[in-house]
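Note to self: keep these together.
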Amino acid sequence: MPCTTILVGKKASYDGSTLMARNDDSQAGELNIKKCVVIKPEEQMKQYASVLSAFKMDLPEDPMRYTCVPNVKKDRGIWAGAGINEVNVAMSATETITSNPRVLGADPLCNDGIGEEDMVVLVLPYIHSAREGVLRLASILEKYGTYEMNGIGFQDVDEIWWLETIGGHHWIAKRVPDDRYVIMANQQGIDSFDFSDAFGNKENHMCHPDMLNFIKDNFLNSTGSSFENFNVREAFGSKSDFDKVYNTPRVWYSQRYLNPNSYIDEPESFTLPWSLTPESLISIEDVKYVLSSHYQHTDVDPYNNGSNKYRSVGINRNTFVVCTQLRPYCQKDRMAVEWLAFACNAFNTFIPFYANVTSLPSYIQDTPEIVDSNSLFWASRMIGALTDSHYASCHPYVEQYQLKVQSQMHTFLSQFDKDSMHDLKDKNQIISDYMQKETTLLLNELLFIACNEMKNAFSRSDG
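Structure:
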């Protein structure tokens, strides 16, 4: 799935939270319909079967409650996307990544293995830390394999880990440094890797137990670098013309935004660093800007008569973006906040909700299969289509909406964090009601503008 991910260590964020966010994007020519729901323990299946492969697996008897963002239509499986479980551990799956023929020839992909449709359901309800998430998914990969290359994020209040699949069964995982952020854009991302740590204390690195033999036996150490500082991207990644227009520019623009003075490189570079220390602490708004970006203030911005040469982060095929925020200064029942937006990120805005609940407001959990403005997914989809078609006239109203709503959402959270009198479910409903009101008002304004700018408009009337 063509997506973009940002991972933010706790010392790189504005409030000491760990932040993990990912756009979920449809394939070209598709616009997958999404909803956000809570899965209670009694609703979790005991025997799992994939739709897109022949994979089957018995699941543990003690699942935890968790949130997720599945497809509304189940013809291609669940595709749970991202979520937080009841002990405040988050998972995002997946970022489709690239590889090269040497790797895929040495460890071929498995037609009957697992894929993006499966991973959250198989892992998130059973893990109590980010590290535990890496190990559970790794054990499944080693036994059953995967039919696609993917990157997966795991997060708790202290750590974020990033796992990348290597061929059909192999894998590596690296901890995001606390003072750094990571941008991933559909390409093998991890650069340096310390195998002495991976096979020693495992403080910041983990991998498949046979990884060293796999590299040696298949001549994958193309740079001759030592295993103490192994160049993973050179060994396992790709350097294609496709990467230069689809993948690397998104990382380049995001790093340029977060490090405007200290970082310079080219949008088609294959040496963009996996992680960087930001010049300023990263906020929720920074995360949203990066994941909504379309090369603003450059000559490749499609909304500024740009060439549309590079694939944007905020694209028509965005289906949702979730930023999971784990806040160390809050009580455990309200530590986990999930910031959610649907459809094209250039024209939507985040709605936050407390994740430690048994159900979510209808506006975000009851998305129908056909268009309905009483659904945040469909309202956001309509706002994006109208604004894209009438950008100059509509975009100022979208910007006002984004600023107003995002400001009020921070106000709600500040108030509700201190309020122990009301249920978290009720607080989420208040947030949802406000979001629905403001989104409906915006949609009304944009529809009026679009109607007046129709090509068959005529200035003279009979009144």
